[in-house]
Amino acid sequence: MLDIKWIRENPEALDQGLNSRGVEAVAGNIVALDERRRTALQALQDMQSRRNTVSRQIGRAMADKDQARADALKSEVADLKNRMSALEEESRAADTALSDLLSTLPNLPLADIPVGQDEADNREERMVGARPGWNHAAREHYQIGEALGLMDFDSAAKIAGARFTVLKGPLARLERALGQFMLDMHTGEHGYTEVSPPLLVRDETVFGTGQLPKFSEDLFQTTDGRWLIPTAEAPLANLVRETIVDGESLPLRFCALTPCFRSEAGSAGRDTRGMLRQHQFMKCELVSVTDAETSLEELERMTADAEMILKRLGLHYRVVTLCTGDMGFSARKTYDIEVWLPGQATYREISSCSVCGDFQARRMNARYRDKADRALRFVHTLNGSGVAVGRALIAILENYLNEDGSVSLPDVLVPYMGGLTRIERAA
User: Catalytic residue among 175, 349, 367, 398, which?
Assistant: First the structure.
């Protein structure tokens, strides 16, 4: 959530930032609601002060046996009480309207973010590695998986409907191996603390990370009102909700390997074949909690941690900075890591690493005590995929495909696969 004090002082900058994200100007409405709320609160304070003064005067009038004056003062108190009740209602209404409006506004982009509407306007930062050098025909992951007899979409559809997949045998183990490899890398080499979080969370949790109230249609809700997590970012970031963290302990770095659940409400007709866009998928999530001074440095670090996964897997990828129109709701800056998929002959996102500033912290009331001056400030939060397990599996199938239809495995995964070096068609 954006800082109302900053908005009050910088209304033009707010509208400019929102406009760059394709959101209409609202600074005038916000300032008007804020002024209405503050005016009501000031009037309430003035009336409360006057009521306290009159109440003392009533006591003196009664002591002086001046009944007429006491009655007049009592009448004034009664009138003040009625007016205060109306002002309290006015203040609550303005505060609710202001909070509701602020809760729907996205974070504002940093100054170095390219202005644009969609992925076509993203800025490429670097390419790493090389595309496969083999000469045989490329195939898409679902063609490879089905030919191996280890990827079953028909059974998944019978069990759960569209956008689900059944993996069998070595492919099921590959999914598990990838997740374990990522966890071991991030905890053993990159300094993250592994967390096993709840997969069902409350309204406050997904509000804190920005999925509510605007994006409820993208989530799955249970019959008791909880939400299935769209990513482990939600429970991990909320580990510091409504807390004051000692600045000496920052940064905090968490990672979790969890199933994730998304309704994909806005993706009708997109990636309907295969397992690129699923209702249920595995992801290794990274979350960092930092102070205000080091959050941008942490973004570079987190992105490098996610990149290292792809480097160890021997996958070619590129890193792009998302433009203003393509960034997520809570982000100030996002790097997308896009892996090369030979079957599609294109790059596809496999990780997004974002810095959110204090945007989520204000929604979660998560603060830290600065180690320099001991002042209370909102923490800065970051999140990133480290990486999406299913998309890593897709990338391995397409990039390590052999001419005979088998799939070789990256060396780093062989220990996790029980010594298996190649996946071949099921007997």
Answer: 349
Cβ 219 vs Cβ 206: under 8 Å: yes
User: Is the pLDDT reported for residue 272 higher than 90?
Assistant: no
Residue 209: pLDDT above 80?
yes
Instruction: Give the domain ranges of the chain.
Output: 4-103, 119-423
In this prediction, residue 167 carries a pLDDT of: 98
Catalytic annotation, pick one of 241, 253, 363, 391: 391
Report, as an integer, the average pLDDT of 118-124: 97
Q: What kind of fold does domain 119-423 have according to CATH?
A: BirA Bifunctional Protein; domain 2 (3.30.930)
Cβ(325)–Cβ(21) below 8 Å: yes
277 is catalytic: yes
CATH architecture of 4-103: Orthogonal Bundle (1.10)
Active site residue 262: yes
| Rounded CA separation 21/97 (Å) | 22
Element (H, E) at 334: strand 333-341
